[in-house]
Amino acid sequence: MELSDQLHNKARPIWEKTLNHPFILGIGDGSLPLNKFGFYMRQDYLFLIEYSRLLALAVAKASELTDMGKLAELLHSTLNTEMELHRRFAEKFDISPQALAQTRPAPTTHAYTRHLLYVSYSGTIGEILAALLPCQWGYQEIGRSLAEKEEPPRQPLYAQWVQMYISPEYGALTQEMISLLNRLSKGAGRRERGCMKENFLTSSRYEYLFWDMSYCMQRWPI
Q1: Mind telling me the catalytic residues?
Q2: Whole-prediction pTM value?
Q3: Where does the pLDDT of residue 156 fall: very low under 50, low under 70, confident under 90, or very high at 90 and above?
Q4: What is the rounded average pLDDT of the residues 1-18?
């Protein structure tokens, strides 16, 4: 069994809880209040900035040129395509690029991105891949789950959001990262594989917490 299959099975209870979170269900039926989605859009923009730093460090740590190329492609796509799409989509919710740039990280955003950056500085390329994959793979799972339902009649913008994550391009990129993780895991020792599993589960938990943070519109208590 490939490592990705092991990780997916291990994280299944977390991912199933994520798929049934009220934030995700609210996107699916269109009932999620726009202010909660707007909060998510602002925090996700900050996340993408730090995610890009993670990818840049992954490029630097990769030993194979082909791996460097794949990760550099994902970095380019995140910085120059996904973030621009994010800015344009946010404007449909009356969130300007200036408002995105002025957003401060909520506690969970701060904690999740610090986890990713710690792994990127201290871990191997395989450990980094394991930490970043729950985000990319998880969005694909969410997109597929929501796409199986009828489009939300009350909020067509949510339907547009779902379409981003079920596109063939997004699916192909996700599969590339899964394949790279599996290949890297074959040369990993016991300790490294253990770290990869722990990183994957920790990031999966943070993915759930990110949705919960957005639903509650989490603020610093003091």
Answers
A1: 135, 207
A2: 0.95
A3: confident
A4: 95
Q: Please write the tens of the pLDDT for every residue from 168-181.
A: 999 998 999 999 99
174-201 pLDDT, tens digit each: 999 999 999 999 988 889 999 999 999 9
149 half-sphere exposure, CB direction, 13 A CA radius: 18
**CA 46 to chain CA mean position, Å:** 12
The tokens for 107 are: 């506690």
And the tokens for 44?
A: 């996700």
- Dihedral over Cα of 8, 11, 13, 14: its sign: negative
Length of the chain: 222
Three-state SS annotation for the chain: CCHHHHHHHHHHHHHHHHHCCHHHHHHHHCCCCHHHHHHHHHHHHHHHHHHHHHHHHHHHHCCCHHHHHHHHHHHHHHHHHHHHHHHHHHHCCCCCHHHHHHCCCCHHHHHHHHHHHHHHHHCCHHHHHHHHHHHHHHHHHHHHHHHCCCCCCCCHHHHHHHHHCCCHHHHHHHHHHHHHHHHHHHCCCHHHHHHHHHHHHHHHHHHHHHHHHHHHCCCCCC
- The answer to whether the beta carbons of residues 183 and 61 sit under 8 Å apart is no
Question: Tokens 């092991």, residue?
Answer: 6
Q: Shortest CA distance to 7 belongs to which of 118, 130, 119, 115?
A: 130
